Automatic annotation (TrEMBL):
PANTHER family: BLR2408 PROTEIN, BLR2520 PROTEIN. It comes from Mucilaginibacter agri. It comes from the Bacteria. Residues 4-130 form the VOC domain. This is Glyoxalase.
Length: 134
């Protein structure tokens, strides 16, 4: 396989709410890929793309049931922080934007620091700082 690009497609209840959440956190919109049924953002230096589709639009393409995020997890994405202070600042920004901190920022081993949050639809992210990571 010679894969040129990979992106994520996630289901949401409310595209407008999702757009507001990720815009408030400062993620760059992937403008040409937005509509009433979809909002898209770039993540990280290499511009990983996440599309957020209305559940009813994504369900048929999945050829199966969507995960119930109130009962379990589909995946956890990791966002790399450059310092403990940056991770702490992101925790505050996430709360203000309407996200939920699943765990508080904490050290969880020598040189490891971070927390888990979920967006308004329950998609989980791990904010992670590791000593020596660039």
């Amino acid at each position: 396989m010679n894969v040129k690009k990979m992106w994520a497609n996630l289901a949401v209840e409310d595209v407008e709410r999702t757009n507001k959440f990720y815009t408030t956190l400062g993620f760059k919109p992937n403008g040409p890929h937005s509509s009433k049924e979809l909002v898209s953002f770039f993540f990280g230096d290499d511009n990983f793309i996440m599309h957020f589709f209305l559940k009813d639009s994504l369900q048929p393409a999945m050829k199966g049931d969507l995960a119930d995020l109130k009962k379990g997890n589909e995946i956890i994405f990791t966002l790399a922080a450059q310092s403990k202070a940056e991770a702490d600042a992101w925790a505050d920004e996430i709360k203000v934007a309407g996200g939920t901190l699943v765990s508080q920022p904490e050290e969880f081993g020598p040189g490891y620091y971070g927390f888990v949050f979920s967006d308004p639809d329950g998609h989980k992210f791990n904010v992670f700082f590791m000593e020596g990571m660039k």
